[in-house]
Amino acid sequence: QVQLVESGGGLVQAGDSLRLSCAASERTLSGYVMDWFRQAPGKERELVAQISSAGINVNYASSVKGRFTISRDNLKNTVYLQMNSLKPEDTAVYYCFLPGRKLWGQGTLVTVSS
Length: 114
Hints:
Elements: E1 4-7, E2 10-13, E3 18-24, E4 34-39, E5 46-51, E6 58-60, E7 68-73, E8 78-83, E9 92-98, E10 103-104, E11 108-113
Parallel strand pairs: 2-11
Antiparallel strand pairs: 1-3, 3-8, 4-5, 4-9, 5-6, 7-8, 9-10, 9-11
């Protein structure tokens, strides 16, 4: 069974950076749009960033635009989310999602202290 595995979360201070990774257990990501979502405590899951299959087109939520960068390495079957200038309101569980197969990762927790 194909799996998406996120990593890179942790506890950081405001203004710090983190890079999240989402790796597929097999050659799955190539040819597919990939998303990063997040869900903060007590809030609905929201789309943070999206990247096209070749990595040419990207879109961001207004709350992270200019601070987060989504990228992918199809040879490594991995999608990344570089998060800079982190804020306490970025605290959430971050999930990668493969919409073409409706496949979610297990999530990785990011906690930003003020």
